[in-house]
Write a structure and sequence with these properties.
pyruvate-formate lyase- activating enzyme; 423 residues; 18 strands; 13 helices; 9-stranded antiparallel beta sheet; single chain; alpha/beta; 7-stranded parallel beta sheet
């Protein structure tokens, strides 16, 4: 048995033999998570309260959301990547198995083992299947369904400043068809924040950014939006972006629970109407990056997608955001328009992207059109005689776009697979 205390990431860990469970059991406690590894064949990660968060079992990765949904991913010997959402029974089986492994790891825990590690495992042991079910119900009493986030925001603290989507007519998206669009009042937001804090408790420290949900919180008129961001700042410290390194370090020491900033979706067909002055006010309140579903530079295809924006509106919005000091995440929808629009989608998207004023800190996301998630798009495309692109054709489309881009250094390019998302 070995034990050691490390800082700052791995605070405590212990390693011990536990045959026949495993030749080597490893337990680690970090500020943000609890880990249990059985040899190298199984790894379980729990949040600081003990909820199962992620698991790796026999080559398959599992990720559980707070609402109880579980997604699994694996790669076959031919390097093909697979992903699917588990049924409720399958998700329960993973919870049950993880709990059994924790129980057995505790049975073998050495008497002189690190007490912090033992206490962490005991917390995880208390989260059986029924406890996870009760917690998921609590989560759904605090939040409307958290339908989607940008991949770099999966660990954000979601605050539903608005609910639903003010447009909600894009043919390829049905994320928000289950709710009417609404903007919270300051008092409603304070109540929401109180319930969020009560739900997360100490696990709030797992979250380091704030995401303003749902589909486009920044569509709210400035006179309504600014008081809402001020309410958020009343409760959650937002890291300043104008301090010297020494002053920033001191600020961080004074604020052990803090957030790097606020983030949100924004659309080009309403967002461009905010002035630079208004956007700069949002930046000063803590908005650091916004995400724009550009989808394509082909305006005929945009009309087919029923997304009422123009390329000039996208350019105007990004120009204004840059002048205000706000970074952007641009999302391109690979496969949109199938075979009919394939050439124009690539050529006109490249032309648009090369006109944008990119800078370090921006992200370019490529999201493949996933037919089961595509709402009425699939039926419309079928009726129009449009053939969908295969996954390989969509990957080729991405390579073709990227080969013609002229982006400065510091701009990330990343995959945005909506099937992976659980909150």
């Amino acid at each position: 048995m070995s034990t050691q205390t490390l800082s700052p990431n791995l605070l405590h860990h212990v390693e011990y033999p536990a045959p026949p469970l495993a030749e080597r059991v490893w337990v680690g406690v970090k500020r943000h998570a609890i880990s249990l590894m059985l040899d190298e064949r199984e790894v379980y990660t729990f949040d600081p309260a003990g909820r199962l968060w992620m698991a790796y079992i026999d080559g398959v990765n599992y990720k559980r959301g707070l609402d109880g949904r579980v997604v699994c991913k694996w790669v076959t010997p031919d390097d093909a990547r697979h992903l699917r959402r588990l049924s409720s029974d399958e998700a329960d089986s993973i919870l049950r198995w993880a709990n059994q492994m924790v129980v057995q790891a505790l049975d073998f825990f050495p008497q002189d083992g690190d007490p912090t590690c033992k206490h962490a495992l005991e917390k995880a042991r208390s989260w059986d299947v029924e406890a996870h079910h009760r917690d998921a119900q609590r989560f759904l009493q605090v939040y409307k369904p958290v339908s989607i986030l940008p991949p770099d925001q999966y660990l954000a603290l979601v605050l539903q400043v608005t609910e639903g989507c003010h447009w909600n007519r894009c043919t390829f998206c049905d994320f928000y068809r289950d709710r009417r669009f609404a903007i919270k009042t300051p008092d409603q937001l304070r109540e929401h924040i109180a319930r969020v804090q009560e739900y997360f408790g100490d696990t709030l420290r797992l979250r380091n950014r704030i995401f303003l949900a749902d589909a486009n919180a920044l569509v709210a008129p400035q006179k309504m939006l600014v008081p809402l961001l001020q309410v958020i700042r009343e409760t959650f410290p937002i890291e300043p972006d104008d301090l010297s390194p020494d002053d920033l370090q001191q600020w961080r020491e004074e604020h052990p629970v803090r957030f790097q900033g606020m983030y949100s979706f924004i659309d080009a067909f309403t967002g461009y109407r905010k002035s630079v002055t208004e956007l700069r006010e949002l930046q000063q309140l803590g908005v650091r990056r916004v995400y724009i579903g550009v989808e394509t530079g082909c305006e005929d295809l945009l009309r087919f997608l029923r997304k009422p924006q123009t390329n000039e509106e996208v350019i105007q919005l990004v120009d204004a955001l840059k002048e205000a000091g706000i970074a952007v995440g641009i999302i391109i929808l690979l496969g949109a328009g199938g075979d009919r629009y394939a050439h124009r989608h690539v050529a006109e998207t490249v032309a648009l992207l090369n006109r944008l004023p990119w800078s370090a800190g921006d992200i370019l996301y490529f999201s493949e059109l996933i037919e089961p998630f595509a709402g009425e798009y699939t039926q419309m495309a079928k009726e129009a005689g449009i053939r969908p692109l295969s996954p390989e054709q969509m990957r080729a489309q991405r390579r073709e776009i990227e080969a013609s881009l002229h982006l400065p250094r510091g701009v990330q390019r990343a995959t945005y697979d909506i099937r992976e998302f659980v909150y």
